[in-house]
Amino acid sequence: MIGELLHEFLPSVNTIALLGNPDNPNFHPDVPDIQAAADALKKRLVVLTASAESAFEAAFATMVRHRVGALIIVPDPLLISLREQLVELAARRAMPKISPSRVFSDLGGLISYASSVVDPSEQAGIYVGKILKGAKPADLPIQQSTKTAKALGLIAPPSLLARADEVIE
Question: How far apart are CA 98 and CA 112, in angstroms?
Fold first, then answer.
């Protein structure tokens, strides 16, 4: 899902960074799936970790060295608590950001691809209902921000906008 969204929105991006907290046991199991998605789309994935705010500058310096064109943030309590710093660093480098957590999109991330953190149970019920009625999970809408897209000089593809639950202006 992640790679496909980035590929659809930013087809010319060849290198993507994945940033997560190595101390979070949920981060490591996701990496092979994200790597496989990147490989399938012929994208290079640079896996970076940060277990403290002091590691952010080094991570972004590595992104610059590798000419990363987009950033996937794997949310966890630490990265969410430091989201303003992450969004600011990415904004300074005009780095599009995507995350499963809407908290990053609300601050200027490009796309979030999960239900609202305010009422995830309700959103999950809606999605389950759609799937039980025959909807394909891959066709379910996503959320993304046009404000960030405009700031980065990007235009959201109509096919992506049509699937969005909400477009943040």
Answer: 6
Other CB atoms within 10 Å distance of the CB of residue 126: 14
Domain residue extents for the chain: 2-163
pLDDT tens readout for residues 76-131: 889 888 888 988 898 888 888 887 777 767 766 666 665 444 445 556 677 778 88
Give φ, ψ of 130 to 5 degrees: -65, -40
Helices 2-9/27-40 angle, 10° precision: 40
Q: Which of 114, 107, 62 is nearest to 81 (CA)?
A: 107
User: Going by CATH, does the domain composed of 2-163 fall within 3.10.20.30?
Assistant: no
Model confidence, pTM: 0.68
